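Retro notes, structure queue

What went well: the backlog is down to a handful. What didn't: a couple of records were mislabeled last round, so from now on we paste the full input next to the output in the thread. Example, using TIGR04255 family protein from Paracoccus salipaludis:
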Amino acid sequence: MPLPIPGSAPEISGTEVHWNFSSVDKKWRVVLAANAITLETKDYNGHIDFIKRFGFILNALADTVQPTVMIRIGYRYINRLQSPEDLSNIQILVRENLIGLADAKIRENVVQSVAQSTCRTKEGGIVVHWGILPPNTAMSDLMDRLDTNSWILDIDAFTQPEQAEEFIVDKALTSLNYLSDRAYAFFRWAITEEFLKRFGG
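Corresponding output:
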């Protein structure tokens, strides 16, 4: 797998290799590529636990690969409503702005309808996808593939400065904290009190 070595030119490869490291229960995964590292989970227990785990990974990366710069940092939440009851009650669970073709009057005839918005934020930006996914479709291969339609709210908050910044683990973790707060703020705007009563949050 090509990895950038400090002070050397990047190796050009026709095929980009990704290494996947999964926990035994398949609920956590680290994906390592030539220019990125990602931590994914379907057992999310809050940003404090998540960022602590990612800090362990970034420190290991700093000790071994020794990257020199950071180009982009992102924090992504993927939320999904999947039960027929929740889809039938979507009007009382999420903001009207985000319902679209998931409206009960026409939803049965909609195969797929996913909208996207990109917004500026203090940290950089936020990209949001929301709408209906067809059966056997997922926004991540960590998500279970269902045999029915589902509704997703995919929130990706990121910082992407005009120039690359020095790779410093503590600085990256601080950015992740801010981005987590930004993504969660959008999530709370998007949902209703009924959603909180049903699912918490």
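Agreed that this is the format going forward. Reviewer comment attached to the example: The helical segments are 47-64, 84-88, 90-93, 169-190, 193-199.
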